[in-house]
Amino acid sequence: MAIIKNEKITSRDNDFAQWYTDIVKQAHLAHYSSVKGCLVIEPYAYAIWENIQAVLDGMFKETGHENLYMPMFIPESLLKKESEHVEGFAPEVAWVTYGGKTPLEERLCVRPTSETLFCDYYSTIINSYRDLPKLYNQWCSVVRWEKSTRPFLRSREFLWQEGHTIHETAKEAEEETLRMLNIYKKFFEEYLAIPVLVGKKTEKEKFAGAEYTLSLEALMYDGVSLQSATSHYFGQKFSKPFDVKFVDRNNQPQYVYQTSWGCSTRMIGALIMVHGDDNGLVLPPKIAPKQVVIASIRNDENVLGAVDKIAETLKKAGLRLQCDVSDKSAGFKFAEYEMKGVPVRIEVGPRDVANNQVVIARRDTGTKEIVKFEDIERHVLALLDEIQANMYERALKHTKERTYTCTTLDEVKKIMETKPGFIKAMWCGAPECEAKMKEIRGMKSRCIPFEEEHIADTCIVCGKKAKHMVYWGIQY
Amino acid sequence: MAIIKNEKITSRDNDFAQWYTDIVKQAHLAHYSSVKGCLVIEPYAYAIWENIQAVLDGMFKETGHENLYMPMFIPESLLKKESEHVEGFAPEVAWVTYGGKTPLEERLCVRPTSETLFCDYYSTIINSYRDLPKLYNQWCSVVRWEKSTRPFLRSREFLWQEGHTIHETAKEAEEETLRMLNIYKKFFEEYLAIPVLVGKKTEKEKFAGAEYTLSLEALMYDGVSLQSATSHYFGQKFSKPFDVKFVDRNNQPQYVYQTSWGCSTRMIGALIMVHGDDNGLVLPPKIAPKQVVIASIRNDENVLGAVDKIAETLKKAGLRLQCDVSDKSAGFKFAEYEMKGVPVRIEVGPRDVANNQVVIARRDTGTKEIVKFEDIERHVLALLDEIQANMYERALKHTKERTYTCTTLDEVKKIMETKPGFIKAMWCGAPECEAKMKEIRGMKSRCIPFEEEHIADTCIVCGKKAKHMVYWGIQY
User: Which helix (H) or strand (E) holds B236?
Assistant: First the structure.
């Protein structure tokens, strides 16, 4: 049975940007606040965030990480200690200059990221190699004074987690950098049902102050890429200016090796843009605030009794559940829960109840089945797994279809003007050639994959000897 | 068996303030940061906070509340809309005046509390009585530019939750105000093992902008009171200036009735000051990050085998557990876990293992018992309940011993100079008499209890006719 088009949402094939804005508004995900560029994250989106947090936090703790909380302010002198870092962030921080009526002696920025604070802290608590590693993480909000903003994708304040670890050796720190990238990859693929590219950022695109940056790149429905999580290796680039030293096994002073890694509420934007359709959100069961909605069609005694019974069974099975026995029309209810992306809808009407059965609809494909009472639990549990798998497969198929191998700029241009996606192309390593690529709809290098294919001998831009195969794409 | 005095901690009877500072430092709860008046909340304290959050958040959700997230900035014009509110908070807010290099058109304060933001949001999403109530809460950090600070008790930034609800009628909103106070009371008594007074704040002590404020007051070991949570009834005091209106059941426009309620990381300070002793923290089992530590005494094969076996059993029983089989001395290990306030310690040594037994020590009383292997699980589960109950009873006894009924200022003075605590005394209702009480070591009214006793006919200060029985105390 086909899904009927929701009139409140622009078609995603007609105007993707408007479609996105419509969903954010109609599914009550975010609301513009009185503070320009800052959002109210509404309860439904926040519930998605809480589920994301619960899973990721569990993964971090399983791998030995502990949470703590750092101040939200960074004194200007502290931000300035690492020169590349301050250059990267100073242009986009919010500055506090007054406490009450008193001007501050030194202005404070609201943290855009907390490397400097962690280094400052580590420098006072580390003495010996016995104190290492420290594997810390914090969940907090950060501020970056962006000029143009978009809900979840780019806003002046956003929620995220930032892990910051220090280690005795470069090897350990590099292993941590990769370990956390792989945790993000697992989370994106298994929970968010979003396939990702992983690899190393080019020098130009790495984090301000890092030795190198690893990243997760996902492709949205419209073929635009989204940098979805990053993991940075700092070596001793921060530990030297911040004097984070320890006495090593040979009784010699050494600087620690450091990493940081983070992901944010931007993931909610990715969920919308990878899975959503013209009827609203489509949420993967593992992350959906409600996995099943039981909606009554007319509320007679038998229907209400059946709803209660089914709810009890499914609650016992551990599912996140909502019952809607309001007197709204069936059509209204269906549209509402489709908008909210609830993976499974159980429709309970008088005629079905008389036959000891219900109708079960899946959100990802819109198909419906009639299921006998005694089969509901088994059917729903299997269906949730199937939906989770199908959503991943569908997104993977789309990403594969939109991943192109190119050897000339003309090919790239043509693709980017019609059906954009990831471009695989060779690169000589020169920043000038990256700059040249940017002329095509603002394209940037996404990452250099860990296993590079050999597409050609020469750089797609300048024709000189190629150094790397790079994934390119336009970006949010 | 008596606990041996920990040398790193000042005795709490000699110098309570230094004792507090020593515990915060030695138990690795908080660390002063480079930002004056702001703290690093270290992993052990943050783990306590996570347990507090998990329980309270569950209680909020059970009573129908949803979480969301508001921006951390408030435009000055928004803060100014309710006149009492801005008077109360403007002197102690941090002001953001620059975004990058650009001066802001309107300065923004970092939220000291979010009534104004919630009102602004509510004014745009409420239309009809059908949209009510809204029962929202957020977990976040807030900033108040305090002059003198103290870890967890008063700092420029702290973590808290703030609930903000709007209702169709005054009655419903007042019920909510009381409901949330009672939830806090239950949480303090049943989880933190801290007895509390509840009642209404005087006009002078209420929240800036509230119709009235209800509060939870707890007595610390040194007899000083701590305002531990508050629940405010706003009536329509915010909804009018913020124009939060709805169409009621008679099709008439009405302003909503509003509440807010909050508690903070100050609770960690209360845990330290109510339960701690000269050997460090003493944590109630329901909130302790680790409920049991299994510490080996010498690490031979039999000991390690026994530790593993016991750990497996207790993990299966659902306990939060730590094993320490490091080669540190037994004395060092015991002192460390006493410092951290772990409720139960299981000591596993070679001689005991040979006899199929262990020594089990409880943190609250320091007593030890020999327990046979097969009885460990049963014994530990019962012991944790007993410790939780005993800690509450002990704190209640202390509070009762330090609660005095007074009819003259001389009595009050004498008590406050020797063994301070809560003072029950009559009051005429005049702010001048409250001011007079303040001359005694800065005493303030704590609250007017819901059930007032009749102690005397006249005000303890001025001798005029008494209106209320008030609890008074000096405060953190």
Answer: none
The partner residues of B142 in beta bridges, in order of sequence, read: B158
Domain at B403-473, CATH homologous superfamily: C-terminal domain of ProRS (3.30.110.30)
**pLDDT tens digit sequence for B456-473:** 999 999 999 999 999 999
Four-CA torsion A32, A38, A44, A48, nearest 10 degrees? 150
Please tell me which of the candidates A74, A96, A159 has its beta carbon nearest to residue B95.
A96
Residue A80, chain B, CB below 8 Å: the answer is no
The backbone torsions φ and ψ at residue B374, rounded to the nearest 5 degrees and listed phi first, read -70, -15
Say whether pLDDT at B3 is over 70: no
Superfamily covering domain A292-390: Anticodon-binding domain (3.40.50.800)
Which pLDDT band holds residue B2 (cuts at 50, 70, 90)? Answer: very low
pLDDT band at residue B173 using 50, 70 and 90 as cut-offs: very high
* Chain A: residue whose CA lies nearest to B265: A69
pLDDT at A5: 62
**Residue extent(s) of CATH 3.40.50.800 domains in chain B:** 292-390
ipTM of predicted complex: 0.96
In this prediction, residue B74 has a pLDDT band, given cuts at 50, 70 and 90, of: very high
CB count, 10 Å around CB of B236?
Answer: 17
Which tokens sit at A374? 């005694």
Task: Read off the pLDDT of residues B409-419 as tens digits, 9 standing for 90 and up.
Answer: 999 999 999 99
- Using the CB atoms, write b or e for A4-24: b if 16+ within 10 Å: eebeebbebeeebeebbbbbb
Single-letter residue type at B471? Y
- Using CA atoms, how far apart are residues A89 and A97, in angstroms rounded to an integer? 18
Pairing of strands B344-348, B292-296: parallel
**What gap in Å lies between CA A137 and CA B106, rounded to an integer?**
34
Distances (CA, A) of A68 to A54, A134, A243, A285, B123: 16, 12, 21, 30, 36
The domain defined by B16-275 carries CATH number 1.10.1060.10: no
Would you call A38 and B98 a contact, using CB atoms and an 8 Å cutoff? no
Do B97 and A100 lie within an 8 Å CB cutoff? no
Could B31 and A125 be called an inter-chain contact, meaning their C-beta atoms sit closer than 8 Å?
yes
d(CA A184, CA A372): 40
- A440: which strand partners? none
Name the one residue in this structure whose structure tokens are 């933001």: B117
- Chain B environment of A110 (Cβ under 8 Å): 72, 96, 110
Residue ranges of chain B assigned to CATH 3.30.110.30: 403-473
Across A304-313, A358-367, B76-85, B170-179, least confident range: B76-85
Which pLDDT belongs to residue A4?
54
Contact (CB<8Å) A121/B40: yes
pLDDT at residue B120 greater than cutoff 90 = yes
Domain with CATH 3.30.930.10 in chain B: 16-275
pLDDT at A8: 85
CA dihedral over A23, A28, A34, A37, signed as positive or negative: negative
Q: Is the peptide bond before A43 cis (omega within 30 degrees of 0)?
A: no
Instruction: Give B75's strand partners.
Output: B108
Q: Do the Cβ atoms of B399 and B195 come closer than 8 Å?
A: yes
Q: Is B108 on the interface with A (CB under 8 A)?
A: yes
> DSSP class of residue B103?
E
Measured in residues, chain B has a length of 476
Contacts of B90 in chain A (CB under 8 A): 100
Please check whether residue A159 touches B, CB under 8 A.
yes
Give whole-number Cα distances, A129 to A224, A242, A250, A411, B29, in Å. Answer: 45, 17, 10, 54, 22
For chain A, list residues with pLDDT below 70.
Answer: 1-5
Tell if the CB–CB gap between B41 and A69 is shorter than 8 Å: yes
User: Contact B142/B157 with Cβ under 8 angstroms?
Assistant: yes
